[in-house]
Write a structure and sequence with these properties.
With 277 residues, the protein is an alpha/beta fold. The chain contains 10 helices and 8 strands.
Length: 277
């Protein structure tokens, strides 16, 4: 199991500052949050992407996952507004192109949400159709996609492994994988073993390793999730992929993002060294 650096809490710094910190913290593999000011996916030109790749290459950093911002409007691939949904799908098609240009093997997706006053089945159908188009386009660029369940306040479509399994089956594309988010998992009252039972360990392609109460995007130790139990379960089931600290917020994390990341690393690195092989 390996840790990626990420720019999730670096929204108020330059991209160069983020890259320097990843080098200093010995995190040469990174997950990129696709949002301004670093990478506004729907507005980035080919030149913008080349410049970003040049900065990454200059610091010896490799992109392991591209995660566009997607849980707030106007981005919603399940929207009942046809124009909004088309533009959202176009954004993710563009994100797949950018992922290929940055050398990222993974594109991170969520299901969107439907209107609260319509049948869930209508939004489910729109989400499945959108995901199918995005995943097919990404595959044409050599990019695999992963889908993450969300908390109920974020989506009325997928919160549980059962719902996630049903959506993958409806999309029906081999290689469409799963992102395990420790907070979403805890809010659904599920475990690592539940994910493995539903998808197999090979189906779990990426992990967001964050603390919560159970919700939140907290530094490890500032919430109440069972970190050692989670890491041991991932190891016991044979997970050998990447894990990212998805630290959000405009408070202390964003004002001093390196310190927040260092607190996570101090907590997690010794446990990773101690988990059974």
């Amino acid at each position: 199991m390996r840790i990626t650096g990420s720019n999730f809490s670096y929204q108020h710094t330059s991209f160069e500052r983020f890259c320097r910190d990843m080098v200093d913290l010995e995190l040469p593999d990174v997950e990129i949050w696709g949002v301004a000011p670093h990478l506004q996916v729907d507005a980035a030109s080919a030149g913008d992407v080349r410049r970003l790749r040049t900065v990454l290459d200059g610091h010896g950093l490799r992109v392991r996952c591209l995660t566009p911002e997607q849980v707030v409007y106007p981005v919603n691939i399940a929207s009942g507004d046809d124009d909004l949904r088309r533009r959202s799908v176009a954004l993710f098609r563009r994100a797949a192109d950018i992922a290929a240009d940055l050398g990222s093997p993974l594109l991170f997706l969520t299901p969107g949400r439907g209107y609260e006053d319509e049948p869930v089945a209508d939004a489910w159908r729109r989400s499945a159709e959108s995901l199918r188009e995005i995943v097919q386009h990404a595959a044409s660029r050599g990019i695999d996609c992963v889908l993450e369940p969300l908390q109920r306040r974020e989506s009325n479509l997928i919160q549980t492994t059962g719902q996630l399994r049903a959506m993958l089956d409806d999309v029906g594309i081999a290689g469409f994988g799963v992102a395990l988010d420790t907070v979403a998992m805890a809010c659904a009252e599920e475990t690592v073993d539940d994910y493995v039972a539903a998808f197999g360990i090979d189906g779990v392609r990426h992990v967001h390793l964050i603390d919560g109460n159970p919700a939140g995007h907290l530094v490890w130790g500032e919430g109440r999730l069972p970190l050692e139990e989670i890491l041991n379960a991932l190891s016991r089931n044979g997970y050998s992929g990447w894990m990212t600290f998805e630290l959000f917020g405009d408070g202390d994390y964003a004002l001093d993002p390196r310190a927040a990341l260092e607190r996570c690393l101090r907590r997690v690195r010794p446990l990773l060294e101690a988990v059974p092989a």
